[in-house]
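User: Good morning. I'm curious how zinc ion would be positioned relative to this chain. Could you predict the structure with it bound?
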Amino acid sequence: MMLAWQTMFSHLQAQTFPTTYEISKGTATATYEEVIDFYKKLDQHFVTVKMEEVGATDVMYPLHVVYYSKEGNFDIKAWKREEKTILFINNGIHPGEPDGIDASMMLLRDAAIDKINIPDNIVLAVIPVFNIGGAINRGSYSRANQNGPKAYGFRGNAQNLDLNRDFIKMDAKETQSLVRLYHELNRDLYIDNHVSKGADYQHVKTFLTTHPQKPGD
Ligand SMILES: [Zn+2]
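Assistant: Good morning! Here's the predicted structure, ligand included:
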């Protein structure tokens, strides 16, 4: 009975904070503005979620990170002392591959409303949208072999740089901001969400891991 009430409460709460993806029944991905507004609301309503600005980008908007901590503790040094496992998730490095943007919104909401249980020793740091310039530059025709969504961002950033090719040269301000945060967090796991754009993969999901002999990841 307790669980039934809890489930119903979670369901109602999820309806209070719906994502664009859910409202559109899976046919649309959130715009940059919708993503940031959504996380602002979560930040305001839940002590377990906090959004911060982490530096400049090549457009007029700052790069944001959204943290989830069950204890409402957002002190990275304290996380280190308490040996929390830090999951760092990056989304929208290629904004035309937006699945991670939408999935992360649902993940953080569902954690905030206790629909899912994030283990006590895990904290999350999520970049809502990394390539903001690309996300704002929306269209419907730059990824012809991809089945949806209706509109999506462009691969290049505001300088038309592919940010997934910028981690060594660091020409983009968003790369410089992300790398600073990356080192500050010294994460246990870094997940960079992409979509395989309609290529005929054998499996629904592909996990590509870093080769230990390659520098950095
Ligand atoms: Zn990609």
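DSSP finds seven helices and five strands in the chain. Residues 94, 97, 164, 194 surround zinc ion (CB under 6 Å).
Let me know if you'd like a different ligand tried.
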